[in-house]
Amino acid sequence: MRLALSLFITLAATVSAVPVEAERRGGAGLLAVQSLVLSVFEWFGQFGIFCQRVLKGTFSAPFEGREFLRQLDNIGSQSLPLVAVAGAAIGVVLGLQTRESLTRFGATSMLPSVIIYSLMKEMGPIVTGLIVSGRVGAGIGAELGSMKVTEQIDAMAVSGVNPYKYLASTRILACLVALPLLTLVADAAGVLMGWLSSTLVKPISLGLFLNMGLNGVSFGDFLPATLKTSIFGLIIGAVSSYQGMSSRGGTEGVGRSATSAVVISSLFLIVADVFLVRLILLFFK
Amino acid sequence: MENTDNTLPIAIAHLSKSFGGRKVLDGIDLTIPRGQTLSLLGRSGTGKSVLLRLLIGLDKPDSGSIRIDGEEITSLGMDRLNRIRQKLGFLFQQAALYDSLTLGENVEFPLKRQTTLSPAERTEKVRALLASVGLERDVDKLPSEISGGMKKRAGLARALALDPAIVFFDEPTAGLDPITAAEIGQLITDLSKQRGMTSVVATHDMHSVRCFSDRAVLLDKGRVLIDGSFDDLKNSSDPFVSEFLTAAV
Ligand SMILES: Nc1ncnc2c1ncn2[C@@H]1O[C@H](COP(=O)(O)OP(=O)(O)OP(=O)(O)O)[C@@H](O)[C@H]1O
Ligand SMILES: [Mg+2]
């Protein structure tokens, strides 16, 4: 049942993500459906080839260390403030809302645990993923897209530099590393604001709050949930780089790449989350 | 046969390329000897840029063969192609400068990647290259801060950075004032004389064709219509050729 649902979501995601191509082919009714299905398959085929090239580039010498660090710095500094603010906002909301429901069931002493647990387990990772896919996905899509349409990527290839390696694989690896770190920031900001919003209603020291809260969560809760965001990073990096590097049709094409990078990567991210949550439940009971 | 091909920097045979059912190049045959400067002429949209992109392996032809220094490049893998590209230079029609890098860094990029020069040697080389196109004072400017003609010249400096034996220029003088255009033409001629550089120049600039090139090739409807000297072009009785020349002058 769950699997069927995920598959349905995947299909819906891709179908909604590639209408541009289908639109261009035109047609109505059955024909439109046909061309839509075709473009979905085409997208996956092209994306597969892209990933293969990137993989090959990633594991061939020399490693583009400097460019990787530059991208890591870029992605980190671009999203850090946003991720922190989002984490903080969720902390506040969780603090207020959880108190309301826990009071109703007479379990207010559970408040710190519930806040920390929900943040680390799901809210922190997924919100970080979605925010980064918006911020960084659009950035990568637009940057690589404009490099593509102005032939800068071709110029790179002419200079004997593999663009799949130099441009795509460094960005993908940077996303992969940055996401767990950013998730930690979101978690921390959330816990802090969760405490603040609780202590304003009913004073409690930060030490006690953390103590009570962390009692309720184990390392096995925290680690897989945080590390799964690396998969989110992989998705964001790969999808956005692909959308950017396959961009065509001038400035309009660049805009399309940026938008579709965000749309496709966030949809894939949510679908992947369904699978990952299921997988983690299987192994870390 | 094989032997004579090996001595030629560029040998093109039966080259065809279509886009969406439209045949842009329809059986091009062309051999270019070392040191020659060949001008590629034709109306806008005849496929000059397409031909140049095929020659450096950025696109794959539908059929036909391209030999660079005797090596067939149409079926080469990435690694082998990159090795061949080290002796090739390419000036893009829109310059294609990396817009996050300064002009100096743009020119330095191929040097950094393909040579073992020390940073000091690279800086010196970059300065000399930019000076040769009159941009020595703009090393630290970003592409967004300079004019179209300056971009073109910076792109030219980058194309020449690795002292390539063969260079493809896509409209090197378009958008330049006549004096600068003549200087660029002279630069290309000097390089072919000094180093035996072979060049293919897609251009609309008849003055450069007359003064700086050894040979003119006029493309029309995907084929080579005229292949000869500028005088051959001038003396041709083909109505399209005379119209092309009259309109240009
Ligand atoms: N990637 C592409 N996809 C589809 N069509 C293309 C592509 N590249 C080139 N063409 C088509 O090929 C034809 C030749 O284009 P090309 O850019 O080579 O012209 P050109 O001779 O360089 O013209 P100009 O003098 O204006 O630069 C054009 O009709 C163009 O529409
Ligand atoms: Mg052109």
What would you say this structure looks like, in words?
The complex is a heterodimer of chains A (285) and B (249). With 285 residues, chain A is mainly alpha-helical. Helices cover 87% and strands 0% of the residues of chain A. In chain A, helix 5 packs antiparallel against helix 10 (250-283) and helix 7 (163-201) packs across helix 9 (219-245). The two termini of chain A are 21 Å apart. Chain B contains ten helices and ten strands. The A-B interface holds A 146-147, 150-152, 154-162 and B 53, 56, 58, 78, 82-83, 85-86, 88, 90, 92, 94, 96-99, 109-110, 113-114, 158. The structure holds adenosine-5'-triphosphate and magnesium ion.
The percentage of residues in β strands of chain A lies in under 5%
Tell the overall outline of chain B.
globular
Radius of gyration of chain B: 18 Å
In whole angstroms, the N-to-C terminal distance of chain B is 41 Å
Quickly count the domains of chain A. 1
Order of helices and strands of chain A: HHHHHHHHHH
Using the CA coordinates, give the radius of gyration of chain A: 21 Å
Structural class determined from secondary elements of chain B: alpha/beta
Kindly, what is the distance between the CA atoms of the first and last residues of chain A, rounded to a whole number of angstroms?
21 Å
Report on the biggest sheet of chain A: none
Task: Label the structural class of chain A.
Answer: mainly alpha
